[in-house]
Each structure stands twice: as structure tokens, then as C-alpha cells.
Amino acid sequence: MLNSLTIVLTISGLFFFFATTMGILRFPDFYTRMHAAGKGDTLSSTLMLLGLAIYHLNHFSMGDFLASVKIMLILVFIFLASPTATHAIIDAGYESGVAPWTNDSSPEEQE
What we know:
- This protein is an all-alpha fold.
- The chain has one domain (2-97).
- It is built from 4 helices and no strands.
- It is elongated.
């Protein structure tokens, strides 16, 4: 049971890492790319580390339990630090004058 849950969490994390990468490559400007990076990186890291923590509980011993606790503490740190860092980078971009993307073309100009 724990192995299948570990596999599902790890594959879900890899999927969101892939989606984050696609968002960074496809979105038009700095702000939307940072949004994709901040949200996707946090979610995918959370899923993968949660899968790893559950995997360490498979063979229950005190050492494996402490490893799972350490992984969960890393997870909490990433869960708090990643959105904060993303906000700080976006704020620095805004303060330095990075303009957001706008769709200025009208439908007649696109033809």
C-alpha cells in the first residue's frame, strides 16, 4: 500500500515539474513565468518529498522514522521559503520597471 502511494506521489510530482517547465517556456512575460515557477515548484517538491518521507516509513525503524521527520522539516521549509522567494523576485522585477505583457493588437491587426 505504501509503495503504491509513494509511486503515485512521485509521479504526480514529476508531472507538475514538467508542467512548470512548460509554463516557464511558454508564458509570455516575467510575471507569468515566475507565477508558474513559484506555484509549480512548490507543489511538485511537496509531492515528491512527501512520497520520499512515506517511502522511508516502509521499513519502520527509529532511523527511518527520523529520516522521515527530517524530510518533513525540509518540506515545511520549502513550503514557506519558495513562495516568499518568488514574491521577493517578482517585487524586485516590479520595482526595477519590468513591464507586464499586454495584448495590444486588435483582431483586425492580427489578420
